[in-house]
Amino acid sequence: MSGPPIHEDTMVTVHLEGRGCRLARGSTLADLLRLLGHTPEAITTALNGEFVARALRADHVLQDGDQILLFQPIVGG
Asked: What is the Cα–Cα distance from 77 to 68, expressed in whole angstroms?
């Protein structure tokens, strides 16, 4: 037996590195990284062309059409 049907108004579509990705409405950038299995410290994020600090990802609720890019952090000197 499956769960309740998913209605369009309960989902958003974001663009993750150029590919469509559907998520539950109200999902945050931190939620998306968790779903993808990324360790927060191992990835750098940009939302709609703007860097998002690790500490602020849980505050960024994703909206339809958001553009998300993931990067490996640059370290060294």
From this structure: 27
Sheet strands (E) in 35-76: 44-47, 50-52, 67-71
Q: How far is Cα 63 from Cα 57, in angstroms, rounded to an integer?
A: 14
Which residues, other chains included, contact 20 with Cβ-Cβ below 8 Å and sequence gap of 6+? 13, 14
Task: Provide the strand spans (E) within 1-77.
Answer: 11-16, 19-24, 44-47, 50-52, 67-71
Check: CB of residue 55 under 8 Å from CB of residue 2: no
**What local confidence, expressed as pLDDT, does residue 23 receive?**
94
Average pLDDT, the chain: 88
User: Which band of pLDDT confidence, cut at 50, 70 and 90, is reported for residue 1?
Assistant: very low
- Token pair 């769960």: residue: 3
